[in-house]
Design brief:
The protein is mostly helical and 602 residues long. 46% of the residues lie in helices and 3% in strands.
């Protein structure tokens, strides 16, 4: 056998390994499911109260009746899809956690009803909110039911076809800026692109679609719309007093309700990627973390610097107080990953999580079916993502074992790849990065692997000369942590259950060791930086070499997604010349001056 033949076989094996997906592998994995079941069986908090909250919603009842319809208009009958999506996920989760085929059957009935009925998500731009938010949520329901035999035998093929032909089609169409309303695509706020990125990634994982998965990762790194991480976190500023870099979110000047939605959607994308072996949490020198810390600080009542933000429909000179203190899911997940999995000190995320828990009914993070409105957040973080001290200790032990026994990269698993040392670092230079000499992130000495993350991150924020070594340390740490915290390293269908049998006291609002500060803190006027230039990020095209077929649950091709014909413009796509009345979901900034040349899709 020649060297060439050996290399060819090795290349083929490596490609096969790298394209394998973990299932379930969207927001929760088999490891998470095993942990949650153990906590519920031991009646531990906050899992027990959170699950009681979920099972008490309208969406988790066996009596729920689907409302499938053929054509949707989000502002007219969108609630039919929102509520049915909430029910499908809630019922699928009940089956996953407590068993009982009646719950799975009820969820399947909803999914198949829509699969047999739905023809269009709408003809106006709001259709892309349906493809984004509800596409992501439906994919999570389908992923939980992926191996349910009656669904596999009858309904799954039709459901998957709907997800690919309608939801994924529209999501990618929007991300690629092919809709006529996107003639100036940066006037769509970050939440629009982030929800469609989350939807496309979720459907890609559901259907084992490596090309679409890679497409979303590529867009996260180098896209030219506001969902790309360099634009979703538009500027890096310096925290008053500490000098720590914070990330100004693209929608902070708009209102805090939408800005909080951006945090939630970024966390969804990062968690799905993490479950599949890619560390977006650390991408672009922890840009997402900096954005979460900025948002949390401001929404707890403290000052933040603000860089003037402008686009074709907005000119923001300060962080908006509209919706300040908004409570939305996502903070359990952010705290879990940064503070517990990686052992970082994230003071504002910690304080804001405590604040949201104290503000919520029941003391746990709510979720779809309990939030009201458009049901645009999956949530239920206290049930799905919360870790107690025993869980963290187990992670630390596993991490230490992995660090001492791992040889680096194993062909049998996908290791987490930290992109901080990659070319995506160039994207982070789109704004002025203000470095700090302070030790911005520190770590308890209980975990050597997590210490590497904290030390490396501190180096990234303290000195430009340390960035290369810090990035290398982060990359090495990612590989070690992946074997301890990643479901990719635990592909067994029956991961070990928690060894704990003791029941801690019920969690209070200060579960994480610190009371949240008063939100009545006086906020001084926020400074404006009027003339700062914001360079655009580099753009990388979607994959140009498309396969003739790919392994989804149905027979289809990516070519139908990426090479679709341009949709015929409708009346709602034609640029308007008057300011429309604000929609109840997303109003127009009241200080906006309309130039008569651009339509409004905010």
């Amino acid at each position: 056998m020649t060297i060439f033949t050996l290399l060819l076989r090795f290349s083929f094996l490596l490609s096969a390994v790298s394209s394998a997906f973990v299932h379930p592998g969207l927001m929760i994995t088999s490891t998470d499911i095993s942990r949650i079941k153990t906590k519920l069986s031991e009646k531990k908090e906050p899992w027990t109260s959170s699950y009681a909250g979920l099972t008490g919603t309208y969406a988790s009842q066996l009596t729920y009746t689907n409302n499938a319809t053929s054509n949707l208009t989000r502002s007219v009958n969108g609630a039919l899809l929102w509520h049915d999506t909430a029910a499908a996920f809630s019922l699928a989760l009940r089956w996953t956690l407590e068993g009982g085929d009646q719950y799975a059957d009820a969820a399947v009935k909803i999914l198949t009803a829509w699969a047999d009925t739905l023809e269009s998500l709408g003809t106006d731009p709001d259709a892309y909110l349906n493809s984004g938010f509800q596409g992501f949520e439906l994919a999570n329901a389908g992923e939980l039911l992926r191996d349910y035999a009656p669904f596999v035998a009858n309904g799954q093929k039709a459901f998957t076809k709907m997800m690919v032909d309608i939801f994924l089609h529209d999501a990618v169409y929007f991300i690629e800026h092919k809709d006529p309303s996107e003639h100036v695509h940066n006037h769509f706020f970050a939440s629009w692109e982030l929800c469609n990125m989350a939807s496309a990634m979720a459907i890609a994982i559901l259907t084992d679609d490596q090309d679409t998965y890679d497409f979303v990762l590529n867009y996260w790194h180098t896209g030219d719309g506001n969902g790309a991480i360099a634009l979703a976190i538009s500027d890096i500023v310096e925290e008053p007093g500490t000098g720590k870099p914070l990330g100004q979110g693209q929608e902070v000047g708009r209102d805090q309700g939408h800005a909080s939605l951006d945090q939630d959607q970024q966390a969804n994308i990062a968690q799905m990627a993490w479950n599949q072996g890619t560390d977006l949490y650390a991408d672009s020198e922890y840009r997402m973390l900096r954005g979460a810390e900025y948002f949390a600080r401001f929404n707890l009542g403290y000052d933040v610097p603000f860089v003037r933000y402008t686009n074709v429909i907005a000119d923001y000179t300060e962080a908006s107080t509209d919706g300040r203190g908004a409570v939305r899911p996502g903070w359990e997940l952010l705290y879990k990953h940064y503070a517990q999995v990686k052992g970082m000190d994230v003071p504002w995320i910690k304080k804001y999580l405590n604040y949201t828990l104290a503000s919520s009914k029941g003391g746990y993070e709510g979720g779809i079916g309990s939030l009201g409105g458009n049901e645009d957040s999956l949530g239920w973080g206290s049930l799905l993502h919360h870790l107690d001290d025993e869980d963290v200790a187990a992670l630390t032990t596993q991490s230490a074992v992995s660090t001492s026994t791992s040889s680096g990269i194993a062909l049998s698993t996908k290791n987490h790849v930290s992109t901080s040392a990659s070319s995506s670092l160039a994207v982070a230079t789109k704004s002025s990065v203000i470095t700090s000499t302070s030790s911005s992130l520190t770590l308890p000495s209980t975990s050597s692997t997590s210490s590497a993350f904290a030390i490396a991150y501190t180096s990234l924020t303290s000195s430009a000369s340390n960035k290369a070594a810090a990035s290398a340390s982060l990359s090495a740490s990612s590989q070690a942590v992946s074997q301890a915290a990643s479901p990719v390293a635990f592909q067994s269908s029956s991961p070990p259950a928690s060894q704990s049998t003791s029941q801690p006291a019920s969690r209070s609002a200060s579960q994480y060791g610190e009371e949240h500060p008063s939100t009545s803190t006086t906020v001084s006027s926020l400074p404006s930086i009027a003339n700062q230039q914001t360079p655009t990020a580099s753009v990388s095209a979607a994959p140009s070499k498309l396969p003739t077929s790919h392994p989804t649950l149905i027979s289809t091709t990516l070519r139908t997604i990426f090479a679709r014909p341009t949709r015929k413009p409708t009346a709602s796509d034609i640029p308007v010349h008057v300011i429309p009345k604000p929609h109840h979901n997303h109003g127009i900034h009241k200080n906006l001056e309309h130039d008569g040349k651009h339509d409004f899709c905010t």
